[in-house]
TrEMBL record:
Top-level taxon of the source organism: Bacteria
Protein name: PqqD family protein
SUPFAM superfamilies reported for this sequence: Adenine nucleotide alpha hydrolases-like (SSF52402)
Record organism: Candidatus Pantoea formicae
Amino acid sequence: MNNLSTMMREIEGYLTPAIIDSAQRCSQRLLAALPDSENPANNRVLLAYGGGKDSSYMVAYVRYIQGLIWQQHGSTFQLRISTNRHAAMNSSVMENIDRVYRALQIHNDDFTECLVTDGLQIRHFDRHLPMPDSVRQQNRNDVLMNGHRFRADARSTFCNACNLSMVNSFGLAAHFEGGVDVIITGDSPQEQTAYLAWARHLSRLFNAPVADKSRGFSGFLQTLDGVAERYFADIYGADQVTPAHRITWQLERDPLFFNIYQDTAYEAGAHWALLTEFMHFRFDELMFSFSESDCGNPTLMAHIRGLRAETLMQRSYAEGIREYVRFALGLMEQKDFPPQLIAEMAARYQDDAAIDRARQRAAEFAEQAFGLNEAQLVCMIYSPFIAQGHQLNAWLKQLNEAPDEQSIRALLRGDSDDVLLAQQLEQLSGLTVAQLRQCWRSAQVSSLLDGTRGDALSRVLRFDPHKAVIQVNNGALQDIVTEVISGR
């Protein structure tokens, strides 16, 4: 156990007396909660690690607790750390994770294992582990199909499928090679209650079966599996729901939950030296995007807002960007980001020249992460194929060389098999003919402002808390209009 011994000596120089005291109390609570508290090594504990600043601190805190129990009892629990990857996490996230693991002496430690889930594949961590092409393609499809259905609403486009994938990764990691006894969470009791309410709310929206409350975590996963099956059937069509869209819920054993929220604070400013000096966490220019530090999608959310203003609203790209920046900086303040990080993010969009640079950076990231070009993102903003082409004419009008509208309608109705037109539409939208026809058959999702309850997807959109209602100028209508803005 030299790894733990060395780590304990080094990390304590970065911990305040208050954190050390709280960790000692927390270690006793955790030891008492383990199914076999007399033999700590007989217990396996799962911790999810996204690779961002807050989860990096949580890994350090739990690792320190693991060391405290070892110091006091000569043995400690088995710690399983699992990271769920997606296309919007670049290599810098894996490099940050690797630096954190090295600082905490986790590599080659007998009491710790580190996993990576890529879709349905789960492997042991390696910072050079390539992401499977199938996962990148699935993420691309999810962005496109959700984006067209929700008319490029930021959260719905990028987060709905990703959130369900994250839940599935919990199930995969909790079931892997013998399962786990305990899952550690840093969520507040209110957040945990909200998650349960969210799962039950979604199950009602989609008329999905709700598992018995006594089923615990596996029951929670089973409920969300029913939600995922119905959600993706609505997005893709019932015959196109893949195993990657489902949620693993038949676990080796049902783990207990242990909450460390009461024991420690997560604000990065409270443990800045631990994060940046001891664990060498680096804020990558793309992965640190607004309120995220391990995902580039908020950069694309801002980019799409700019493109929406420039095309659909006939305003300027910069105006749309500034709307998103005001909204997202407010989210950062709500989430207690250190002032220097908020200032750094604001500086990226401080003037027209900075916005031009950010636009180029976002366009390159959209290509690199999802293989989507600007024309395909603009197409998603118009969502021209939804509801039998409700916005088709408006989209065609802004194209330089537009295909014939009636020919498109015939193709998507199934009255034509024009191969050249199909290829042209795929190039313009990123969607296959089968996906275009699914969009054609799908209903328009109504927004928060429509005043009607609508279908399940419309109510999912209204239930999302990370949004605001704003007044903007619509150049196309020559009027001030009310819009909903969402993001991260």
